[in-house]
Amino acid sequence: MRNLPRHNSLYRVFPALSHSSFRWFWGGQIISLIGTWTQNIGQAWLVLQLTNSPFLLGLVAAMQFVPTMLFSLHAGAWIDHLPKRKVLIATQTIMMILAFALAFLVGSGSLQYWMLLIMAFILGVSNTVDVPTRQSFIIELVGREHLANAIALNSAIFNAARLVGPAIAGVIMGVWGPMWCFLINGFSFIGVLGILIFVPSIPHQEKVAPKKETLGKDILNGLNYIRKTPSIFMVIIMMGFLSTVAMNFNVLVPVLAKIDLQEGALGYGLLMSTLGFGALIGALTVVIKSAEGPQPLLLLVGAFGLGIFNVVVGLQNTYLLSAFFLAFLGWSMIVFSASANSIIQITVDGEYRGRVMSVYSLVFGGMVPIGSVYAGTLSDFWGAKVTFVISGILTLLFMCGIVFLLRRYRKDEGHENSGLI
């Protein structure tokens, strides 16, 4: 497939879209991600309907991310030695089957809580392989020159889906019930699978690394590479802490809506949509800045924003103000995470890409079980609003420590720029 002319004004602003293979893949993901968010919202509300327990909701979220914690490092070493397109076809097919299975169980009235735990774990295994593979696959579609723009565009559609999916889910659950959330997600995989199977052009495909080392040695080499690359190492540390403490929205927002604010399914869906709206604006902020390369300052702004707006959301007593400040929280989350992703992917050597992105997935998603249990437990005792405040204060204290360490590193090592400040 030929790329569209580079002089087109659209492709000057969004140069990654000038690559036809990326355009197809990006377009397919728009539909798939809306389906994913529709299922996420339906599943969270279904758990609360079955159990009325924030802790058990957090446990389901934890089960979905336990595989990332356990197997992410192994998946990264494995990904570096396999064609990424074939891996994605396999993982997307498994997730489609799981969505249809959940729709059947809900529709037949046979779903029980323990089944949700098992299916969340299986979905987590698939995601453990799928997420770092998709992250590593992007450079094969656009090359290194337009990688930052492609990452930002992916964040934009992810958060457009975060905006649209919850709103769709809220309406669907209110009118037809949660079964349709899972059914829609199942059908949403068909498009991206068709694109992966039938679009052959991968213009910047990286060579699959030859299998020379044992799996354990491959993992150790990847970890040593991260440790010796300061920009990657510090971003990984930041992502690990913030994803554990400051980004537990799948647990806290449904509890905030149902228990603290006494809202129904539609109110919950709209709260998630405002979070998604802010995240979409954050992604567009990163898209606009991506032409200048990764933005370390944006990384720090997003991180501090997570601390500030967690506190602010927790101090609100009305639905409208909670929704308003959740949008700022969503903006901060995506400005931080998209900037972190760009810094890592621009910095990493191709030989280690799968392993480094698996560690990124580990600290971004693999810490969710700990974060979910943390958020669910605190919410059980004190409610979602107090948990938001505690999380924000811990985040601000942590980030002050990080800035202090970065400035000290810069001074002691004689670096004019540490890569982050």
TrEMBL record:
Which CDD domains does the record match to this protein? MFS_MefA_like
So where does this one cross the membrane? 55-75, 87-105, 111-129, 150-176, 182-202, 232-253, 265-288, 297-315, 321-344, 356-376, 382-406
Pfam families associated with the record: MFS_3
The topology of this chain with respect to the membrane is: Multi-pass membrane protein
The keyword Endoplasmic reticulum is assigned to this record: no
Any one cellular-component term (Gene Ontology) = plasma membrane
User: What subcellular locations does the record give?
Assistant: Cell membrane
Q: Which UniProt keywords are given for this protein, alphabetically ordered?
A: Cell membrane, Membrane, Transmembrane, Transmembrane helix, Transport
What is the name listed in the Swiss-Prot or TrEMBL entry for this protein?
Arabinose efflux permease family protein
